[in-house]
Amino acid sequence: MEIRLSGILCQATGGASSVEVSGATIGEMLASLALKHPAIQDHLDDGVAVAVNGEIYRDRTDQVIPKGAEVFLLPRIEGG
Amino acid sequence: MPYETDYTNQKFSVIGNRVNRPDGVDKVTGRAKYGADASAAGQLVGKILRSPHAHALIKKIDTSKAEKLPGVKAIVTGDDFPDFTGGNRSLMDTLENCMARGRALYDGHAVAAVAAVDAQTANQALKLIKVTYKKLPHVTDVDEAMKPNAPIVHDWIRTAGVDPAPTTASNISQRNEFGHGDVETGFAQADIIIEKTFKTEQTHQGYIEPHACLATLGPDGVGELWVTTQGHFTFRNMCASLLGLDVAKLKVTSSEIGGGFGGKTHVWMEPVALQLARKSNRPVKLVMTREEVFKATGPTSSTSVDVKIGAKKNGRITAASAELRYQSGAFPGMWGMLGAMTSFACYDLKHVKSVGYDVLCNRPKVAAYRAPSAPMAAFGVESVIDLLAAELKMDPVEFRIKNAAKKGTQASYGPVYGPIGIGPTLEAVKNHPHMKKRLGKNQGRGVACGFWFNFGGQTCTDLNIGIDGSVNLTVGTVDVGGSRASLALIAAEELGVDYDQVRVTIGDTSSLGHNDTTEGSRGTFSSGMATIFAARNAVDVMKQRAADTWGIPVDQVVWEEGVARAKGRQNSNLPPLSLKEIAAKSPRTGGPIAGHNEVVADGAGVSFASHICDVEVDPETGSTRVIRYTVVQDAGKAIHPDYVEGQFQGGAAQGIGWALNEEYIYGDDGTLQNAGFLDYRIPVCSDLPFIDTEILEIPNPNHPYGVRGVGETSIVPPLAAIGNAVSNAVGVRMTHVPMSPPRILKAIEDAQ
Amino acid sequence: MSGVTVSAKVNGDAVQYVCPPSESLMDVLRNRLNLTGVKEGCGTGDCGACSVTLDGRLVCSCLVLGAEAEGRAIGTVEGLSQDGELHPLQTAFIDHAALQCGICTPGFLVAAKSLLGRNPNPSEEEIRYALAGNLCRCTGYDKIVRAVQSAAKVMRKQKRS
Questions:
Q1: Is the ipTM value over 0.90, yes or no?
Q2: Chains C and B are touching, with contact defined as 3 or more CB–CB pairs separated by less than 8 Å
Q3: Alpha carbons B101 and B90: distance in angstroms, whole number
Q4: DSSP helix/strand/coil, B119
Q5: Model confidence at B2, in pLDDT bands (50, 70, 90)?
Q6: Å from B581 to nearest chain C CA?
Q7: For C25, which of B244, B411, C52, C61 could close a Cys bridge (C-beta 3.0–4.6 Å)?
Q8: What pLDDT is attached to residue C1?
Q9: What domains appear along chain A, each with residue ranges and CATH number?
Q10: B25 close to B266: Cβ distance less than 8 angstroms
Q11: Cα torsion angle, B619, B623, B628, B630, sign
Q12: Which positions in chain C touch B518 (Cβ < 8 Å)?
């Protein structure tokens, strides 16, 4: 599947704002991404937020990614 | 997890009722215990020595005289905190912020601490500690800190997010860009373009309760911490990491919290208290003064923001761009990034670009403040939106409705929106009676929208049913604003019992698995979800007990309105068994009845709000009076409407204070001039009118009852709503927050 | 360090304590008499969280010395309820959800009681100005004012009957 990312995460993918990865869940997708672009591991360790069809997931790695879903990676966000 | 998501037919027995909160009596009688209200036998008083300089090398700390003072039992400096961070930069930043390591980075930075038999002795000891400083050049303004010849705060910082990667030190820790399309193309299509720069000054969350804790830590690494915090599990992990302790050996109990708003999500002096306790082998009580709270905890960023928006004559925006510069204090943060993400989130834009810079300076380490970074960005964007509407002679609400984001819009921060509430809140504002009120002389009306993310997170709850049928619910999310009432309502709803039968406790770290901090508007959303599942878990147990009692298979048992019923004609002779009856029999049917749930709550959704504000500005003094204020926000489902309204009103009040009066004032020497409630003026009772609220309920499909997070979003629109209202009242566009009387007078003067 | 011996009345009970001359009444109440309902929000008389009455007069206990209480009567939030019954103000605060974190609540209750003792039928404006010395960061004061209005009504009724 194609995932998109922006902000500082693009630096870890050599400037690419969209990457081809595989995975049925958020966890699998992130592992696939880290395999392709090892530089992103630091950001993953800090934590990233993943938007699946517009819904933002920050904590669940077992969240299923439906087929054809729009996936967008965001840097970690926190509230107050 | 399977749950009913057909909200239109959801009928609730107790949810939505305005019941009395279970901890109400404790709080109105003074019985409730907050951070500074605990004491231990033999306790010492801890006090911290702080740098009087904005930036200085610490050449020497001589504690010899202080050590000899009778009654002084322990003294610590940076040397007493070995590096257990394992190279984790973020942990080291926290450690260094708690206690300086060779360099004082801001006025108020901790350089040493003592524990003594009483406060007088401790204060005397501080005076006896001789610190030799060598002053260094400092910088406190965000734009000044970005200049090439600015004094550098940390020489190891290289700006991230820039290509090619820089090799020289900078105060800009990162650059983040968000957006889609091509703004140049979009601006070329515009009939009018408005471009403006805005500035907002630094503010503090302003919780009335200062940070306080009571720490014990023995030579065996076993310790206890009683502390006012938004997240006791997070504090436990943090203190254990920084001090090299086993997490399980440190028990952290959350006191009642006297306000947090994001400022109590991180440790500021708790590791120092623990280290003093270890060194003296006695309990140490460490309470911050109000001055310390202002100088050495985590205020929000001061900012400088450029906004440019273009639109066609028909009112459709063709392009929008922003550059946002946020200072993060003396350590790196991601606040500029958050500002860039939220700036245009309310709008449906084909071409949008926002760039956020995070900048270091010699100020305290910035922490989250209720929807962090969003209010400042909204101030700039919503002001320009109003200017465009005025230029196009369009009604400001209609202009926003015309450009509002909706399902299918690509958000300016990236993903495509599902169903969202911005349209409904704007429609509600358009039709609100407030809009029809006539304005008088020197009065102006302002409208603004705001956006914020809401979060879920790790949550764990235990539900135990007592022998008499009363219910104990233990949760791990700190109750910052009254969520205990909502959680009791939820448990009562699921079990089918009276609200008064449920007792909610916030468990300490040894009673439950990890619970994330109460931030990101997640308290009721996450704990509520875990409570639902824990209750359903308990219901399953009770159904089995009933089945065993009747000798029938459990799939013939249903749970309805607090009783187990045996279904089927063959079971019609079996009378229902109530929760009370099942509980009474429990010792003989299998023992205590409990439900438990660990969940990583997620998908809390995003939140939108629209505010209306009327102000009257005295043209002679520049003083502004808020005469009417209305908040419209989507809550998904209001479990307890009083507390949802309370969040709306509280956030609005903080925003009003931020817009009109609150700011950190720094001298040329880089020291904070107004570190107290007299000169850092938060709104008082006579400053505000009644704040009207309208709760919209557009269900969140990721929650069994449709709940959305609500706590933060209402602080996002006020800066802009007041900005628009004041600008309309005085006929001059305000671009600098707070819009204090001198600033308003100057703006009027400059315009003439 | 020499201490001052003080005899006073707190919530109707006789008390005696020894404190350094420089110690505030707030610290005496909290640390020596264990009346932690009095809260320290600022220590400089700007927030009202430490509000008590001194011979019936509303004061910030952080601005009064422990020694100054000699022979005087002090009223704290702990003295509001009588014979196990909540004061109408306390009931009203709970009923109207006039508290979120609750740290400012004791101060507001003492200040509101003082107001209603002087002015049993205050206007909204009078309530707002009388309570302007008590800071709240959570509620925006809306429900607090409503609670005071409601309690005032109940107290006027009680007085008539």
A1: yes
A2: yes
A3: 15
A4: helix
A5: very low
A6: 32
A7: C61
A8: 56
A9: 2-75 (3.10.20.30)
A10: no
A11: positive
A12: none
For residue A35, what are its two tokens? 């395999």
Terminal-to-terminal C-alpha distance of chain B: 64
User: Per DSSP, which regions of C43-89 are E strands?
Assistant: 51-54, 57-60, 73-75
Give the residue-averaged pLDDT of A1-12. Answer: 85
What chain B holds in terms of domains, given with CATH numbers, is 7-30+456-601 (3.30.365.10), 35-136+210-257+264-296 (3.90.1170.50), 303-454+605-751 (3.30.365.10)
- What contacts 24+ positions apart, CB below 8 Å, involve C82-87? C86/B25, C86/B28, C86/B29, C87/C113
| C141 shares contact with chain B (CB less than 8 Å) | yes
Chain A with chain B: Cβ pairs closer than 8 A? 115
Asked whether the beta carbons of residue C43 and residue B289 sit closer than 8 angstroms, the reply is: yes
Residues 6+ away with beta carbon under 8 Å from C157: none
Average model confidence (pLDDT) across chain B: 94
* B534 shares contact with chain C (CB less than 8 Å): no
Q: Do B29 and C94 touch (CB under 8 A)?
A: no
| Predicted local confidence at residue B4, as pLDDT | 43
Q: How far is A68 from chain B (nearest CA, A)?
A: 13
* Residues of chain A positioned with their CB less than 8 A from the CB of B337: 7-8, 75
Q: Give the tens place of pLDDT for each residue, C41-90.
A: 999 999 999 999 999 999 999 999 999 999 999 999 999 999 999 999 99
The identity of residue C72, as a single letter, is R
Partners of residue B20 in chain C, C-beta under 8 Å:
94-95
Domains in chain C, CATH or no CATH each: 4-76 (3.10.20.30), 88-160 (1.10.150.120)
Interface with B, mutate which of C22, C31, C142 (most B CBs under 10 A): C142
The model's pTM is 0.95
